[in-house]
Design the sequence.
């Protein structure tokens, strides 16, 4: 029968560090963990920045849809407003304010950082909207001026023809045509 070794007669072994594994250094562990923590924080901030940018871009997409509707939409589009209605004093003001109100409403639903990213984007869209609005108003103003001029020529030619016997009436018609030409 085999005999068990007598442990009292043997020397106790002294632990020796292994040469095949990186040694444990308690003084460097804290610094390493701090470094890893900083890297995690940096990456988390980058990811949050991406999410805030996406949120701002999504909000801009919604604002651009409003812009398209207010520009070309069947019911709300200013491009459908013609001649005299497009040059009324409140035409520009009302539509500009409606667009700005839409931008504010969209911005209210964003996180603070996304709001900051959205503001310059919304400002750019606002400028583009106002530019289109003014361009349309100017074009319709030109159309109105041409139509009015043509109407003045036609009306005064008919007036002069009907009242050819009265030199004052003819002179008035000629004066109106001349003043309309300026």
Sequence:
């Amino acid at each position: 029968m085999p005999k068990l070794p007598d442990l009292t007669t043997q020397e106790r072994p002294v632990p020796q560090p292994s040469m095949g594994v990186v040694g444990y250094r308690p003084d460097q562990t804290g610094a390493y963990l701090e470094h890893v923590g900083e890297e995690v924080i940096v990456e988390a901030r980058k990811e949050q920045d991406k999410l805030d940018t996406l949120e701002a871009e999504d909000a801009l997409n919604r604002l651009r849809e409003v812009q398209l509707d207010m520009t070309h939409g069947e019911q709300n589009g200013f491009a459908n407003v013609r001649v005299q209605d497009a040059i009324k004093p409140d035409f520009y003001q009302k539509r500009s304010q409606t667009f700005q109100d839409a931008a504010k409403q969209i911005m209210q639903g964003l996180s603070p950082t996304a709001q900051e990213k959205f503001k310059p984007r919304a400002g750019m869209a606002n400028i583009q909207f106002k530019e289109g609005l003014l361009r349309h108003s100017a074009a319709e103003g030109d159309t109105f001026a041409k139509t009015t001029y043509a109407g003045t020529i036609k009306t005064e030619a008919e007036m002069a023809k009907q009242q050819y016997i009265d030199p004052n009436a003819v002179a008035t018609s000629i004066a109106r045509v001349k003043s309309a030409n300026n």
Remarks:
- The mean pLDDT is 88.
- The CA atoms of residues 153 and 178 lie 9 Å apart.
- The two ends are 132 Å apart (CA to CA).
